[in-house]
Each structure stands twice: as structure tokens, then as C-alpha cells.
Amino acid sequence: MPGYIPATDYARPYYSGHLQNNHPDLIKILSHLNCDYFCHPGGRPPTMLALKRHAQALAILIRAHCISTSGGEINAQGSEQGEGLYENTDENHQIPLSSLMNHVKRYSDVAGPEFHCPFESYKPRDPSERPSKVRPYQTHHNLLMHANDCLEILDNEYGATGGFMSILPSGESDEAEEMKAARNSLVGQWLLFTQHLVGRMHELEINYAQSLDLLAGDAAVPLQVVGKTGPSKTTGRDIGFPQDRWVLANAGDDIFDLLHQRMDKEEDLAQETEAIWKAGGVSGERMWKKTQQSQDVSRGIVAIDVQTRYYRLKNAGKSTIFVVPGWEFHPSCSYTRIIEQRPTVVAVPAPQWPPRVSDWEAKARAKLEAAEELARDHNQLRDNMNEQLRAHNAFVSHLKKTTLLAKSYEAAFARDANDQIKRMTEELQQYRDKLTHLAEVLPQSYHHHLEMSP
Question: What are the protein's UniProt keywords (predicted)?
């Protein structure tokens, strides 16, 4: 396969449209080209900026492990010293290089390389771009391989009914809608055209075989040819003019012998019947004669019924008719009988050419308009969602700030309250101790002034 790089110890096999179209003679030099930049799991092609950054990293790595032994002035101005990441704002450096994508999905020593599906797509780098399906593996070669795999599966599934060519509806009244839909598809038009072409070839093959039947043997024209029996020895006899209308074609020794064999069988059966009649006394003596072997044989005519085919040239009016005797068992007509009894195409629908591309354009235009409307709705919904998300994030941020402030107030209030309760408890205990001391010192008559609880 042109452009295919086999697997190495560090990378899987590599195959891309760029190598196939531009570098068929550089496969040996580029045998270690593949890396994960060309095998993105999401199908995203690399950009020129990414490739240059990759090359910069490889160059720095090689420089670190391979000390230069010769001097030289490289990059004297010092604009690119390899100390920072390579940057480039050129628009061409941001374009995805789809032609460099590796078409080999995985590789096995048993099954060989497995290629990516040509309908695999990836999301664009910028989410604000118009949504579109970018398919980096959709090359003509991959599309043909994919179509061939699909057709092989269909041919295997319909193997019991004749393969892929029998997938079309039969065209009956109950399948009229399906046949109409099939005529409006590329595969249906292809199959119909192939069936029409095969049917036409079948008819031409039958006509060709019939022409060979007419010319296979010697045509017997007894009194039509110029012969010495005519009055001027240059024309046929006048009495033979009816034979100009009938010409025996393909009447050679083979059919002559076959007809005589059938007549011999019929004659043997007639002889047995005549012998029975003679033994019964119902057959006259004049109906019998003796042969040279002194055998009595009956006289008469032997007749057999055979199928004969007649031919005439098209658009010739009442012209000469060619007669092929014994056509049903004629040895030279066996192939014609086979192809007529078992035609190449079982059922050929009536030829009807569908519109060229008008139906397809209408169908595709409707889908494109619907897709554009869905894309506009999607973009509008995405903008609304982003706006609501920003408002939600702002509200959540404000709520978090309020919650933190409330928690700080609550924590501060709880700490001051505990201190106040502790201080008041200590003061109350001091008052109790002082009252107890006064109760011990003062007489009993003063105790009611102290309002001591019992």
C-alpha cells in the first residue's frame, strides 16, 4: 500500500493521505515519523504550532544527551535559545493538519492493521465556533474500503437469495413504496442500472445464440441455389419458387440422424401394432411386403411430432422464414435452451430512469436547512445557558460570602457570651460567700434582712 509505514518498537504502523500523495519515495527515511501527535484518541489533528513545540522538545532532548564536538555560531542573535516554550500567533500555525492523521487505529500480529472509520469526527478546539463534524479520516481510499466492507456484509447476509444484487424490492404492489424509495437512493439506482444492463445483455446473448443456431450447420436450400437444372444453367427452376420463402437452417447430419432415430423407434412400435392386427386378421395382404431377409414388414408412413423454431429478420415484412428442425433436442441449440430456461436475471423491472439529482438535492437541502436551524437554536441555548451559569456562579459566590460573614458573627457572639456568663457566675458566687459570712456574724434578728433562701 503506497504511503504505509510498518510498526516500530516505539510506535504503531502509520498511514496518512499526506504520505500517500506526496512522499512515496521517502518511506525508508520517514520510518520513525509516527508519534502520538498523529494518533490522538479523540481524532483531533495536530497543528503546526504543536508540531514545532514537539520538534523543539525533541531538539532540546537530543542536545542534552548528545554533546556537540564542533564549534559553530548558531542563532547568534539569541532570539530562540530554547529557554521558553515556542509560540507563534500566525493563523496558519493554528489550522489542524488533517492530512497527517494516522489512519491506523490499532495493529495486531494476527489480524494486521485496523483502520479508522472514515465517519469518525472530533470536536473543534474553540467551543465558540459553529458546530460542525470534522472527519480527518474521510479520504477517498478509506471511503471505498468502508463501502466495500459494508457491501461484503450485505452480500453475505443475502447469500441465500442471490447476494447483494437481490436486495432490491420485487416491485409488486405491496412493495411499491419501498421500490420508489430505492429508486431515490444511489445504491438503488446502481442496482437497477446493473439489473437493466444484465437483462439487456441476456437478451443480446439469446439473440446471438439464436444467430449461431442458424449458421451452425449447413442451410439446405434445394431449389433456390443456382444449379445446372435450370433452363439457362444460371437460375433455379421456376417450380421451386415457393422454396424461396422457406429456408432450412442448421439442418446438418446431427439433426438428420436424430430425427431418423426417433422415426426408427416409432416405426418399431408401429410394426408391433401391425403384427397384432395381422394376427387378428384385420390387416390386408397389400399392407405387407417382404424384405431381402424374407421378413414381413408393414407398409405405410411414419410420423413424429417435434418442436420446430421459425426465425425471420426484424422489419422485413413477409420475407424468407428460416426453419430450425427439431429445436427442442437439437445438439447445436442446447446452450440456447439452457439460457432461455434459466435466465441470468430472474426478474427485471421495467426500465424507468429516476430524476438525476433533483430528489437528492431536495432531500439534502431539507436536511441542511434543518441542521442550520438546529445549530442556531443550539448556539442560542448555549449562550442562555452560559449567561445563567454566570449569574448562578455570582449568586453562589455572594451566598458563600454571606455565609462566612454570618459564621464569623456567630462565632464571635458565642465566645463573648460564654465569657459574660462565666464572669457573672463568679460574681454571684462571691455574693453568696459574703452573705454566708454575714449570717454567721450578725444576730438572728438581722437574718430576714439578708433574704437568704433556706
Answer: Coiled coil
Output the pTM of the full model. 0.41
Which cell numbers hold the place of 2? Answer: 503506497
Q: How far is CA 76 from the centre of its chain?
A: 58
Return d(Cα 395, Cα 183) in angstroms, integer. Answer: 59
Angle (CA) 259-260-265 rounded to 5° is 100
Grid cell at residue 75:
542563532
Question: Max alpha carbon distance in the chain (Å)?
Answer: 194
pLDDT in tens, 263-309: 899 888 877 877 776 666 666 666 667 766 666 777 777 888 888 88
Three cell numbers at 337? 435452451
Cβ–Cβ < 8 Å for 336, 311: no
Please write the tens of the pLDDT for every residue from 22-70: 655 666 666 666 676 677 666 677 788 877 877 776 676 566 655 666 5
Residue pair 354/183 in contact (Cβ under 8 Å)? The answer is yes
CA–CA dist 196, 172 (Å, integer): 17
